[in-house]
């Protein structure tokens, strides 16, 4: 079924709407609250994350309201009164959203998003906000690790065919770009986000012409800046010699860029291919490689002195193969000016109450109460104020640059992809006091009950 007025407003869990119904019936839906999103464990045992998802968050919030078909659908559930549906029809987003710059380096327990406003607004948004930032931050972080392993060599994002459906491919490749990838093979992502697009050709081209020579010749006749895929039948006996033959025959006409290998022993093959290309007079031709690559495979291949210049990475990046979810949660930290907390037997899971700010200094980050004076750079900034967008979305290029600069300000030991040192994130004295007071307060409440 396609609804002409479909919206993302119902992209939420049913329980959010059920809670809003209760808040509304009991008259607390407009109480001022603050919710914050944060994660407890850094993914991939990495030392940091790259915050991503802000652009999608903004486009989601800009359009959020219940459409006629949204309301018809809710009516069909027979869970709510007509008066409540009318209330939803009139509802508009009026909260304030704070977030770090997209591309900012962030750490566990730091607010990635802060929503301040009516309880109804903050509650409705939880699911979609977490859905967006959990995925994109995860992929940008994975990309950043792969970029670190490639040590400045170009990285192409090839993951669309293996991504978890269309949206994940699209926003995932943008996140990969923020994390430092140079280009994507996804043409729609190129169009929508103005990302550089790039690509070679597949085995099908060689199969279609039945042999390497005819395939490369046909491709060379129709393209400039060509990269030939040389491993369809036999890399060294057919693919590489025919690539060289065609490159020589076409000369300047095709601006031969190099060859891609996608199977076999990438170390031995790349070393031999390098010698062959050099000997044939193509010392500037590059060797592209792809095939289940990630930061570990790239590190391993480099250690073995593989002669690879350009890395194509798909599946393991776009699916965050070794850790498919970032566990950011979204917790209420204050209601009607009172700090509030979620207790747990597990100390790690006790939330830190109060609306917060993050301050970055040379010696680490400090979380303070929002209005407390801090030292260093404040990380959370206003994105929407009372429902109005005040932050302009930068270009993807600017976000990528921001991520690079943000990362270069963090000392190397915290950025190792293997066993990084733990970056210091501390709580201010006032925040610790607020936490202890709130815990004591809740314990007294339980005792009285
Ligand atoms: N010399 C090497 N050292 C370490 N890893 C390598 C080396 N050569 C290839 N790899 C990596 O090993 C993995 C396994 O490759 P595998 O042998 O399954 O591929 P293949 O059989 O050659 O190709 P395919 O099955 O895709 O046609 C790939 O991720 C590849 O990038
Ligand atoms: O390996 P990835 O990191 O996911 O990169 C994308 C892969 O997509 C293509 O393969 P294709 O779908 O043709 O399958 P293949 O594995 O048989 O080459 C390409 O040749 C890469 O191998
Ligand atoms: O352009 C390529 O080489 C490419 C694109 C998508 C997937 N694998 C390879």
TrEMBL record:
<feature type="domain" description="Nicotinate/nicotinamide phosphoribosyltransferase">
    <location>
        <begin position="156"/>
        <end position="349"/>
    </location>
</feature>
<dbReference type="Pfam" id="PF17956">
    <property type="entry name" value="NAPRTase_C"/>
</dbReference>
<comment type="function">
    <text>Catalyzes the first step in the biosynthesis of NAD from nicotinic acid, the ATP-dependent synthesis of beta-nicotinate D-ribonucleotide from nicotinate and 5-phospho-D-ribose 1-phosphate.</text>
</comment>
<dbReference type="InterPro" id="IPR006405">
    <property type="entry name" value="Nic_PRibTrfase_pncB"/>
</dbReference>
<feature type="domain" description="Nicotinate phosphoribosyltransferase N-terminal">
    <location>
        <begin position="10"/>
        <end position="134"/>
    </location>
</feature>
<feature type="domain" description="Nicotinate phosphoribosyltransferase C-terminal">
    <location>
        <begin position="378"/>
        <end position="433"/>
    </location>
</feature>
<dbReference type="InterPro" id="IPR041525">
    <property type="entry name" value="N/Namide_PRibTrfase"/>
</dbReference>
<keyword id="KW-0597">Phosphoprotein</keyword>
<keyword id="KW-0436">Ligase</keyword>
<dbReference type="Pfam" id="PF04095">
    <property type="entry name" value="NAPRTase"/>
</dbReference>
<keyword id="KW-0328">Glycosyltransferase</keyword>
<keyword id="KW-0662">Pyridine nucleotide biosynthesis</keyword>
<comment type="similarity">
    <text>Belongs to the NAPRTase family.</text>
</comment>
<dbReference type="InterPro" id="IPR036068">
    <property type="entry name" value="Nicotinate_pribotase-like_C"/>
</dbReference>
<dbReference type="Pfam" id="PF17767">
    <property type="entry name" value="NAPRTase_N"/>
</dbReference>
<comment type="pathway">
    <text>Cofactor biosynthesis; NAD(+) biosynthesis; nicotinate D-ribonucleotide from nicotinate: step 1/1.</text>
</comment>
<dbReference type="GO" id="GO:0005829">
    <property type="term" value="C:cytosol"/>
</dbReference>
<dbReference type="InterPro" id="IPR007229">
    <property type="entry name" value="Nic_PRibTrfase-Fam"/>
</dbReference>
<dbReference type="InterPro" id="IPR040727">
    <property type="entry name" value="NAPRTase_N"/>
</dbReference>
<dbReference type="InterPro" id="IPR041619">
    <property type="entry name" value="NAPRTase_C"/>
</dbReference>
<protein>
    <recommendedName>
        <fullName>Nicotinate phosphoribosyltransferase</fullName>
        <ecNumber>6.3.4.21</ecNumber>
    </recommendedName>
</protein>
<dbReference type="GO" id="GO:0047280">
    <property type="term" value="F:nicotinamide phosphoribosyltransferase activity"/>
</dbReference>
<dbReference type="GO" id="GO:0004516">
    <property type="term" value="F:nicotinate phosphoribosyltransferase activity"/>
</dbReference>
<keyword id="KW-0808">Transferase</keyword>
<dbReference type="InterPro" id="IPR013785">
    <property type="entry name" value="Aldolase_TIM"/>
</dbReference>
<dbReference type="GO" id="GO:0034355">
    <property type="term" value="P:NAD+ biosynthetic process via the salvage pathway"/>
</dbReference>
């Amino acid at each position: 079924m396609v609804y002409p007025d479909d919206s993302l407003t119902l992209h939420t869990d049913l329980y959010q709407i059920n809670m809003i119904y209760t808040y509304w019936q009991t008259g607390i839906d407009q109480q001022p609250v603050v919710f914050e999103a944060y994660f407890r464990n850094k993914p991939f045992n990495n030392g940091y994350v790259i915050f991503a998802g802000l652009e999608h968050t903004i486009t989601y919030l800009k359009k959020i309201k219940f459409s006629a078909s949204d309301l018809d659908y809710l009516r069909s559930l027979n869970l709510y009164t007509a008066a409540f549906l009318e209330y939803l029809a009139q509802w508009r987003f009026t909260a304030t959203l704070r977030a770090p710059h997209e591309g900012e380096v962030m750490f566990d327990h730091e607010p990635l998003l802060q929503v301040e406003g009516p309880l109804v607004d903050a509650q409705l948004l939880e699911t979609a906000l977490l859905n967006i930032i959990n995925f994109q931050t995860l992929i940008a972080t994975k990309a950043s690790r792969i970029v670190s392993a490639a040590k400045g060599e170009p990285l192409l994002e090839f993951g669309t065919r293996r991504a978890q459906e269309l949206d994940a491919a699209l926003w995932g490749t943008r996140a990969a770009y923020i994390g430092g990838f140079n280009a994507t093979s996804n043409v729609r992502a190129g169009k929508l986000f103005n990302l550089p697009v790039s690509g070679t050709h597949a085995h099908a081209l060689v199969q279609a012409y039945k042999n390497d020579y005819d395939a490369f010749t046909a491709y060379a006749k129709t393209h400039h800046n060509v990269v030939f895929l040389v491993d369809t039948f036999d890399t060294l006996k057919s693919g590489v010699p025919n690539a060289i033959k065609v490159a020589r025959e076409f000369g300047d006409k095709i601006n031969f860029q190099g060859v891609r290998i996608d199977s076999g022993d990438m170390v031995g093959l790349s070393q031999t291919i390098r010698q062959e290309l050099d000997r044939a007079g193509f010392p500037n031709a590059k060797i592209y490689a792809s095939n289940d690559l990630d930061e570990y495979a790239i590190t391993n291949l480099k250690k073995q002195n593989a002669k690879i210049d350009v890395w194509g990475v798909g599946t393991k990046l776009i699916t965050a193969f070794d850790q498919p979810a970032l566990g950011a949660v979204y917790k209420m930290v204050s209601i009607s000016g009172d700090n509030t907390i979620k207790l747990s037997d597990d100390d790690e899971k006790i939330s830190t109450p109060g609306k917060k700010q993050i301050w970055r200094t040379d010696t680490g980050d400090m979380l303070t109460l929002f209005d407390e004076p801090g030292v260093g750079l404040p990380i959370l900034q206003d994105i929407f104020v009372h429902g109005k967008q005040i932050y302009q979305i930068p270009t993807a290029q600017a976000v990528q640059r921001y991520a690079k600069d943000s990362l270069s300000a963090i000392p190397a030991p915290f950025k190792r992809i293997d066993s990084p040192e733990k970056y210091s994130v501390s709580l201010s004295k006032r925040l610790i006091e607020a936490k202890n007071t709130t815990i004591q307060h809740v314990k007294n409440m339980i005792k009285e009950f």
